[in-house]
Amino acid sequence: MKLMNTMKVLLLFCLVMVGFGVMLVGCDSTDEEVPVGVENQVLIKDFKFLPQDITVTVGTTVTWVNKDSVIHTVEGSGMDSGNLSKGDEFTFTFDEVGVFDYICGPHPYMTGSVIVE
Ligand SMILES: [Cu+2]
Fold first, then answer.
1. CATH of the domain at 88
2. Which of 100, 49, 52, 104 is nearest to 75 (CA)?
3. Could you tell me the distance, in angstroms and rounded to a whole number, from the CA of residue 71 to the centre of ligand 1?
4. Distance, CA 70 to ligand 1 centroid (Å)?
5. Left if phi > 0, otherwise alpha if psi is -120 to 50, otherwise beta: which for 9?
6. Ligand 1 centroid from CA 57, angstroms
7. Same structural domain for residues 18 and 55?
8. Same domain assignment for residues 51 and 70
9. Residue 96 alpha carbon to ligand 1 centre in Å
């Protein structure tokens, strides 16, 4: 009987530790900057454009902000940001309706689109 109680305590201890682990992971993700709430802004983060597709109305100025420690660019459809270091911003005003695709020059697998309506 005593052995069973010890097992129960151990099992409970394990469950608590797993619970802590989940909590820690949860805290970690809430610390990250979430790309919501800022209108007409695209974050460049973790080698991605966030959001990848953004829809705006004609005449809107879109701002890209590099949140990565490496240099990224916004290139294509008439845009050329030049090198963006961490914290750098690039803005572009869309005066025509259409779909404007772009990539990051150093990392062409990073793609994004601005849909202007
Ligand atoms: Cu890049």
1. 2.60.40.420
2. 104
3. 6
4. 7
5. alpha
6. 26
7. no
8. yes
9. 26
Domain containing 61: what range? 41-116
Whether the predicted pLDDT of 17 surpasses 90: no
Digit-coded pLDDT (tens) for 77-95: 999 999 999 999 999 999 9
- For residue 12, the CA-to-ligand 1 centroid distance in Å is 46
Q: With the CA atoms of 40, 61, 116 and 66 taken in that order, what torsion angle do they form, in degrees rounded to the nearest 10? A: -50
Secondary structure letter of residue 2 according to DSSP: H
Is the pLDDT higher at 4 or at 10?
4
25-81 pLDDT, tens digit each: 544 444 455 545 589 999 999 999 999 999 999 999 999 999 999 999 999 999 999
Asked if 64 and 56 touch (Cβ cutoff 8 Å), the reply is: no
Burial of 35 (0-12, 13-18, 19+ CB in 10 A): middle
